[in-house]
Write a structure and sequence with these properties.
Chain B: It is a multi-pass membrane protein. Chain B: The chain crosses the membrane at residues 169-190, 202-222, 252-271, 291-309, 321-345, 365-385. Chain B: Residues 138-392 form the P-type ATPase C-terminal domain. Chain B: Residues 399-420, 454-477 are annotated as: Disordered. The complex is a heterodimer of chains A (371) and B (477). Chain A is α+β, with helices and mostly antiparallel strands. Chain A folds into 2 domains: 52-79 and 331-359; 81-325, no CATH class. Chain A contains 10 helices and 13 strands. Chain A has helices at residues 52-79, 97-101, 141-145, 149-152, 156-160, 182-185, 216-222, 233-236, 265-271, 333-360, and strands at 4-5, 12-15, 28-30, 82-86, 111-119, 127-134, 171-172, 175-176, 191-197, 203-205, 279-286, 299-307, 317-323. In chain A, the strands form 4 sheets. A 4-stranded antiparallel β-sheet of chain A has the order 4-13-6-11. A 4-stranded antiparallel β-sheet of chain A has the order 5-12-9-10, with no helix packed on it. Chain A has a 3-stranded antiparallel β-sheet with strand order 1-2-3, with no helix packed on it. In chain A, a hairpin with a 2-residue loop joins strand 7 (171-172) and strand 8. In chain A, helix 1 runs antiparallel to helix 10. In chain A, 31% of the residues are buried. Residues 1-26 of chain A have low confidence and may be disordered. Chain B has 3 domains: 1-38; 52-152, Rossmann fold (3-Layer(aba) Sandwich), CATH 3.40.50.1000; 157-404, no CATH class. Helices cover 54% and strands 6% of the residues of chain B. Chain B is built from 20 helices and 6 strands. Chain B has helices spanning 23-33, 57-63, 66-78, 89-103, 117-122, 136-139, 150-188, 201-211, 213-222, 228-233, 239-242, 249-274, 288-310, 316-336, 339-344, 354-358, 362-389, 393-404, 434-439, 471-476; strands spanning 14-18, 51-56, 81-85, 108-111, 125-129, 143-145. The longest helix of chain B has 39 residues, at 150-188. Classes of the chains: A alpha+beta (371), B mainly alpha (477). The interface between A and B is large, with 93 and 91 residues.
């Protein structure tokens, strides 16, 4: 066997092809692995250990940080004013009871009801008006899939031939539905108006802004009307039909051409499906008037509802919410309370660990490494 | 045959040498070993001292028969050292297989000659030493090196690191995938059990392939609990591997519980925070896409933080892969949710605008911060408490290493000069009587073969030495 060896390092050097150890066999190929840090697993490394010096201060710092943040959040949330009123019409005494009972899909005359309420506090700055639905599963998988984003982006081909995902709401009577899909078909179509009952007795209609309620990226990038700009939408949407549950076609959603067709903001807000079965969506904004007068003064109000949207069949609920807004959004005390509790638990845990460390902390002595 | 340091034997209290030609004498000799204790031995009896056992090939032939092999095993396992000398290659393999079969332990056999090949192949781990006796042992082994002393390194450094890396890798892998998947179970209660995914489809595709693949790979390749010098200094570090401490059914169930808790927190905190919540300008933040964005970013931060806690040896590669994974997540997410890709492939990238619109909200970031801390702090507290109250050998050595830095390197011993002799390891021609053993039927495994030499009864019954006819005698009949 043509293998010679040196045993200083215990490595074998194999001479190439055992012939005469002259010129040809002179190339020695060593099997010794390279002595680099990477190959010998000696890479320089940081080796952190959980010591009392790192863990205990961390717990205390986190505890001390979280409690003020939690208090800040809670106070901010408490300062937000919110009012909610359910107008589904389930009880007999509810003003919208008859509308709910007598709902029919083929009704020609829309049913209206008036719900009176009272605001205890004046609302300053911008007031946001939401509609809320309960037990409505906009996050159901088949429902979420049922839309055609190409069609909603103004693609002409998709306008005429909606995608298969929209089935069975893709065609109606041989015409393609625009916008197709179950999400569009179930669009919320109640009309809500706010009327302030002056102490003198006059009824003041509160002006509601219908634009600026959808995301900027939605309105300007994701949703586009088909055809070129400034063309008549009635012409563009010729050959298509409205969704089955709609009372008006998509090009008659609003008289403002900037809010008509697919870029109608109520439509866009509805198409942004909610994550949970109880949700609220922005309906209108009540712009603030001046620094002197509150936007919504204290007093009696009436909510005028054009009851178009049936929810009784799936035991859903409809409600209207008026809310002011802060930097952290609407009224949600959860985050504040969670921060305060986690902060205090952390701090307590830090104290407990400190006590335990004091009493038992010397078990890591090397003298106790038994052989 | 392996040369063993006989010095160690001097420390034994007693050494029993069993050499016999027949079974009876073996039983008698063995009875003599335990005259102080009962001859009825139970499994794993307590040993009151250090014993050693030397047994030669002849005796082993009897001792390896079915009625005696368990006794041999029990006796041998109670001794500190067992030396079997003058054995045939087959007997070497039989001894290894005996241990394998009854002890349910992992066996390692090391040898350097062609006569060790069967033993090497029989053991779980076969180690061959290349050198004086040729390359046969090397070719049939799982590991090979050139000097016997490298076995220490193989076991205490590389074997140990390999076990630790594998266990950590597996545990982390199960943790990250359970956390990621169990979230959908909780969401099912709120989406009508329609199997709606919480995350974006692209995140689901890339999570295991890109976002968490490289960092866990780095963990499995480079992690060390203590460096090699400390591994030599404290061989006790090897015992957790023998006791199967780092990955067993118990640790798996623990991992499952931690993952369930993590997935619960990852779902419930965003759920409660986003309930009826809106952005700072009044617009939607509780929509499906923002909720997905929130949970998937929280998940990425939580599993990265867990990786930070699990890794003990932070090389530059580990740091690069971990931070790179998070950076890759953010880069890919923002790219996939951008205008450009939406216009090119409209139906494939429906999440346009979600990253921009949700990640600029302070309440989203606060929710994420709370979620991550609530997932990580229990783990930190538990590990810290465990280290305080029940430190493992690894913890102790790591603390010592941290205080003292590197231990002094092992003193340099010049390698022993070996005189090159070509000594055959087959002993046919050596001492008298060895031939009897080899030509006896002791090492033939098959029972009912026609007797080769005309003998019909088992030599155990007769207490006679065996007689065989020579080849010339055979040919004469």
């Amino acid at each position: 066997m043509a293998s010679s060896y040196k045993d200083e390092d215990g490595h074998i050097t194999v001479s190439g092809s055992g012939a005469a150890a002259g010129a040809g066999g002179g190339s020695l190929r060593s099997k010794k692995p390279e002595n680099t840090a990477f190959k010998q697993q000696r890479l320089p490394a940081w080796q952190p250990i959980l010591t009392a010096g790192t863990v205990l201060p961390a717990f205390f710092i986190i505890g001390l940080m979280f409690i003020p943040i939690g208090i800040g959040l809670y106070v901010t949330s408490n300062n937000i004013k919110e009012f909610e009123i359910d107008y589904t019409g389930v009880e007999m005494s509810s003003p919208c009871f008859t509308c709910a009972q007598n709902f029919s899909w083929n009704g020609t005359k829309p049913c209206t009801c008036s719900v009176p309420f009272h605001l205890d506090q004046p609302y300053e700055s911008n007031v946001f008006m939401y509609y809320g639905l309960s037990n409505f599963y906009q996050n159901h998988r088949r429902y979420v899939k049922s839309r055609d984003d190409s069609q909603l982006n103004g693609n002409e081909e998709s306008l005429r031939k909606p995608s298969k995902e929209c089935e069975p709401y893709a065609k109606h009577g041989n015409k393609p539905i625009a916008p197709c899909g179950a999400i569009a078909n179930s669009m919320f179509n109640d009309s809500l108006e706010l009327i302030y009952n002056d102490p003198n007795g006059t009824k003041v209609q509160i002006p509601l802004t219908a634009t600026g309620i959808a995301w900027w990226t939605d309105k300007h990038v994701k949703f586009r009307n088909p055809g070129a700009e400034n063309t008549n939408l009635t012409v563009v949407f010729q050959g298509t039909t409205q969704p089955v549950n709609w009372r008006r076609p998509v090009f008659q959603l609003d008289s403002d051409p900037d809010n008509n067709g697919f870029i109608n903001e109520d439509f866009i807000v509805w198409m942004r499906t909610a994550a949970l079965p109880t949700f609220r969506k922005l309906y209108r904004i009540i712009q603030r008037r001046s620094n002197v007068h509150p936007t919504l003064p204290r007093g009696n109000y009436t909510l005028e509802v054009v009851y178009n949207y049936p929810v009784r069949s799936f035991e859903g609920r409809k409600r209207m919410i008026l809310s002011t807004i802060s930097w952290m959004g609407g009224k949600n005390p959860f985050l504040g309370i969670a921060y305060i509790s986690v902060g205090s638990v952390c701090f307590l845990l830090g104290v407990v660990l400190l006590i335990i460390h004091h009493k038992y902390g010397n078990r890591n002595n090397a003298a106790e490494i038994s052989h | 045959m392996i040369k063993v340091k006989l010095m160690y034997m001097v420390l034994m209290k007693e050494i029993f040498v069993v050499t016999a030609n027949t079974a009876d004498t073996v039983i008698k000799a063995r009875a003599g070993l335990f005259w102080l204790q009962k001859t009825q031995t139970v499994q794993d009896e307590k040993v009151n001292g250090e014993y050693g056992l030397i047994i030669n090939g002849h005796s082993l032939a009897y001792a390896l028969q079915e009625d005696l092999e368990l006794e041999l095993l029990r006796t041998a396992c109670m001794c500190k050292t067992v030396i079997c000398c003058r054995v045939t290659p087959l007997q070497k393999a039989q001894v290894v297989e005996l241990v394998k079969k009854y002890k349910q332990a992992i066996t390692l056999a090391i040898g350097d000659g062609a006569n060790d090949v069967s033993m090497i192949k029989a053991a779980h781990i076969g180690v061959g030493i290349s050198g004086q006796e040729g390359m046969q042992a090397v070719l049939s082994s799982d590991f090979s090196f050139a000097q016997f002393r490298y076995l220490q390194r193989l076991l205490l450094v590389h074997g140990r690191w390999s076990y630790i890396r594998m266990c950590k890798f597996l545990q982390y892998f199960f943790y990250k995938n359970f956390s990621y998947t169990l979230l959908h179970f909780w969401y099912g209660f709120f989406c009508g059990f329609s199997a709606q995914t919480v995350y974006d489809d692209w995140f689901i595709t890339l999570y295991n392939m890109v976002y968490t693949a490289t960092s866990v790979l780095a963990l499995g390749l480079f992690d060390q609990d203590v460096n090699e010098r400390w591994s030599f200094r404290y061989p006790q570090l090897y015992s957790p591997g023998q006791l199967n401490m780092f990955f067993s059914k118990r640790t798996f169930v623990q991992c499952l519980i931690v993952s369930t808790y993590t997935s619960l927190v990852l779902f419930l905190i965003p759920w409660a925070a986003m309930q009826d919540s809106v952005r700072g300008d009044g617009k939607d933040v509780a929509d499906y896409q923002s909720f997905a964005m929130l949970t998937q970013t929280s998940l990425m931060v939580v599993v990265s933080a867990q990786m930070f806690l699990d890794t003990h040896y932070w090389t530059a590669i580990n740091q690069f892969f971990l931070l790179g994974s998070i950076a890759a997540y953010l880069a890919i997410t923002f790219t996939f949710y951008s205008n450009g890709l939406f216009f090119m492939f409209t139906s494939s990238f429906p999440f346009i605008g979600s990253a921009r619109n949700s990640l600029n909200q302070p309440n989203v970031w606060l929710t994420m911060f709370l979620t991550c801390l609530l997932c990580i702090l229990p783990t930190v507290a538990y590990r810290f408490l465990h280290m305080l109250l029940h430190p493992t050998i690894t913890d102790k050595v790591r603390h010592k290493a941290r205080e003292e830095g590197q231990p002094a390197p092992a003193p340099y011993r010049p390698p022993p000069r070996r005189v090159s002799t070509r000594r055959s390891s087959y002993a046919f021609s050596h001492s008298q009587g060895y031939g009897d053993l080899v030509t006896s039927r002791k090492f033939l495994r098959l029972k009912r073969r026609p007797s080769l030499f005309g003998r019909k009864d088992s030599p155990l019954v007769e207490n006679q030495p065996q007689h065989y006819r020579t080849i010339t005698e055979e040919s004469q009949t």
